[in-house]
Amino acid sequence: MRLLTALALTMSPILTQDYTWPTDVGKHLSSNFGEFRATGYHLGLDMKTKGTTGHPVYAVSSGYISRIVTNYSGYGRALYLTMDDGQTAVYAHLSKFTPQLENRLKDKQDAGQTYMTNIFLSPQEFIFEKGDIIAYSGNTGFSFGPHLHFEIRNKNGQTLNPLTNGLSQADRIAPIAEEISFIPLNSESWVNGNQLPQNFSLFRDKTGEYHTPDTINIFGRLGLSIKTFDKRQGSNNTYQPHRIEVFIDERLHHTLQFDRLDYNWRPTANFIKDYRNARLNFGNFIKLYRNEADPRVPIHADSTNGILDLTPGYHDIKILVMDALKNTRVIHGTVFNMMPFDITLEPLGETEDLLSFLIQPRSITIPIKSVIAYSFTPFGFADEQISIQSSEPIEAGRIVTVPKKQANRKAIQFIAQNKLGAQSKPVHWINNKYVGDYLSVNVDMDISHTDAGIYVQIQPEQIVSANFSLRLKGEYQYETIPLNQIQPSVYLTKPIPPIWFENVDQIEAILNASIERQVRFEFPYTVAMPGSSITAVSKDSFCSIRTTKSSITSPTLMWIEAVHKHAPVQKGNLLSRVYQLQPFERPLLKPVNIGIRYSSKLKDKDKMHLYYYDQKEGWSFIPTGNNKERQVLTGEVNHLDAIAIIEDVIPPKIQSIHPGNNGNYPSLELNQFKIKIDDNLSGFKPVEDSFELRLDSQSLIYAYQPNLKVISYELDRPLPIGTHTIQVKVRDRAGNETSQNIKFKVY
User: M23ase beta-sheet core domain location, by residue (predicted)?
Assistant: First the structure.
């Protein structure tokens, strides 16, 4: 017993560190550990510094400075403190270091005549005690405002959640939950009579717990994801929760926890978040399941995968969302696991004000409990929920009446629920006076790709009276696939395995009434398999995608669509069609190579490059290669976005320079040069080749802040009295240049 107690006491400091907070401006965060970013995960804490720079930054524990880094992007000015416990604290976006560290940095920069450094130091050079000032907060590197980015890394270089590994922060507010998503995972999966993923709003009760709006009818293998975030008192920011637990019928089903991450795992963030919901702008959902092909990272529990595959009947779902201090939010839901049933619809007649219908289950004898109805315009647009005037049981079915005025010139969709709680597939009534001609109506096809597989959607531009089906055709393949009518003018397949399309080059929509009509769609799509490389080419042969062996984790149907309606290119010249890489709602693990051919009349243009469309930033530059012999621009992308060739011929702007032209300045008061620059489209690559700064013809070792677009230089001694010249040259990514010389006097 004494031996075990001694061992526990010996190990406890290793397991639970006690670090001091690295700033003295309050324990307020703008971001926490594990948040989803465009580049992956946020690997530390972003600590607020009251919107200003220059605040002391402290050693959180005793140790030595093992590394100094300075650059224009990334962490800007950063220090690495290797602590006595063997872990490393990383401090980023600093404005300056202590004088002895600054001197060491300046010697290195002067020796190499470069701002960029990566200095590794010996344990004896710069030793600090816990609580010593080591630097001052700033806004350097890829920073969107003054703050301190802080990390704790273990001996393997992996980042740990500082709030569960030595730092403490008061917090009494539990996370918030807004929506839950049910995601079908195969062709036999259903959610409320539908095979597409569905989101449901959550409702908060008086005790602060959340609930799904009603019992949800599910069937087959499904995944859950949840839109949730953490809050802290005194802050409007939102944060990533620390831990989520899923219980089914009060038994722990799955867990995930944001405690340890690695720089090499950053691409896996798109498999931890619900990527489809994010791409559709529905917000940040966290997946509560792991597909077999998803990359394995120690966020999900290793022994379970979180997938729902429940026995028939009712089941309780409980989800606990926790922050680092275990403030917990509870979400409750009830699901009923049963296959959706088919119903039949028979018009019974009409009066001056009402329409009557008999709705019955097609095969099962479980009585229908309730019916809801929705109206749609003749062109298939959802209109409104229709009031059910009466609903009378008859055997297992019901006779329902609806107001005639709500159905005038409309189609009606009926959905039933039986007494067990199962929901029906929808059925539709269409007034034949207002249907289109199925032999001549235009028919569109859309394809989407989810975790369950490929959905093919056929949609006539007007409601028609015909039976729809689908044919997949290839040289050695001929497959007929039924379509479910999910709305009066929308017909959808079950999810289809991507491998089925491997030898398909044509899809036919079959509209069958008195005469069969075939609508053919060309099929320039390619099936990409993990571990192999494929090339997909657009229908016009001008755009291509090439995957690498690691680009995808599961079989994926890839194609390219020429986009007719796209975001405008306002600050450049669009020189190609805009191409949407598909499937845009599927994540990539590694980048894909892209190429767009250009015509010979563009061969001499040297300012054209590839760009992708970012929903937040607009058209964004892609580092581009130009094979003039083949007349193709090449690059790579991390997401399947819209891409195009755009020409940027507008030079960047030098907006302001301090000191100003012809200005007069006291020698002891002029201590900094500051140049504000901007560019309309391609932007600046954050490297020294993009800029030149000279004082009296002598090159200076300057800093650059890429988000503020500011070049700066700190004077380490007063300038001599007299006239001086500053020469500035800036170059954007497209190769456009601007230069300016100014003269000023020092007295």
Answer: 41-117, 129-162
Q: Which of 437, 457, 444 has the alpha carbon at shortest distance from 519?
A: 444
The tokens describing 695, both together, are 């004082």
Return the percentage of the chain with pLDDT > 90, whole number: 91
Query: Contact, 138 vs 68, CB < 8 A?
Result: no
Q: Which two tokens stand for residue 452?
A: 């369950």
Helix or strand run (H / E) with residue 12: helix 2-15
Structure-block tokens of residue 275: 């990527």
Name the token pair of 421: 């709680």
| H or E element in which residue 457 lies | strand 453-460
CB 21 within 8 A of CB 60: yes
User: Rounded CA gap, 708 and 5, in Å?
Assistant: 55
Token couple for 712: 């700066």
- Alpha carbons within 13 A on the beta-carbon side of 272: 24
Res. 300 pLDDT band, cuts 50 70 90: very high
CB 577 within 8 A of CB 566: no
Q: Which amino acid is at 515?
A: I
- Contact between 182 and 227 (Cβ < 8 Å): no
Which of 116, 69, 76, 141 has its CA nearest to residue 688?
116
Query: What's the per-residue H, E or C state across 116-148?
Result: CEEEECCCCCCEECCCCEEEEEECCCCCCCCEE
Please give the helix or strand (H or E) that residue 8 lies within, else none: helix 2-15
Instruction: Tell me if 15 sits within 8 A of 7, measured CB to CB.
Output: no
* C-alpha closest to that of 331 among 406, 225, 415: 225
CB 26 within 8 A of CB 148: no
**C-alpha–C-alpha distance, residues 745 and 722, integer Å:** 5
CA-to-CA separations, 300 to 133, 226, 263, 526, 537, in angstroms, rounded: 38, 14, 17, 32, 36
Distance, in Å, from the CA atom of 424 to the CA atom of 342, rounded to the nearest integer, reads 6
**Residue 745, phi then psi, degrees to nearest 5:** -115, 145
- The rounded distance, in Å, linking the Cα atoms of 4 and 208 is 42
Largest CA distance in the chain: 103
Confidence band of 378 (pLDDT split at 50, 70, 90): confident
Q: Which amino acid is at 491?
A: Y
Cα(105)–Cα(165) distance, integer angstroms: 30
Single out the residue of 121, 152, 114 nearest to residue 33, CA to CA: 152
CA torsion through residues 434, 437, 440, 444, sign: positive
Q: Can you say how many angstroms the Cα of residue 379 is from the centroid of all Cα atoms in its chain?
A: 33
Measure Cα distances from 186 to 340, 526, 544 in Å. Answer: 15, 21, 29
Q: pTM value?
A: 0.93
- 4: helix, strand or coil: helix
Residue 634 has pLDDT above 80, yes or no: yes
Contact of 136 with 148, CB cutoff 8 Å: no
Give the Cα separation of 185 and 464 in Å (integer): 31
Of 539, 35, 648, 528, whose CA–CA distance to 284 is shortest?
35
Whether residue 127 has pLDDT greater than 70: yes
Could you tell me the two tokens for 739? 């230069």
What is the mean predicted confidence (pLDDT) over 649-674? 96
Q: C-alpha angle with apex 279: 461 to 550, nearest 5 degrees? A: 115
Beta strands 210-211 and 328-337, pairing class: parallel
Which residue type, as a one-letter code, is found at position 165? N
For residue 179, which of 197, 196, 206 has the smallest C-alpha distance? 197
DSSP H or E stretch at residue 100: helix 99-112
What does each C-alpha distance from 400 to 119, 351, 360, 427, 523 come to in angstroms? 79, 13, 11, 14, 44
Output b/e per residue, 418-445; b: 16+ Cβ within 10 A: bebbbbbbbbbbbbeeebbebeebebeb
Name the region of 143 (left: φ>0; alpha: ψ -120 to 50; beta: rest).
beta
Q: What DSSP string describes 289-319?
A: ---TTSPP-TTB-SS----B-PPSEEEEEEE
The helix or strand, by DSSP H or E, that contains position 261, with its residue range, turns out to be strand 260-261
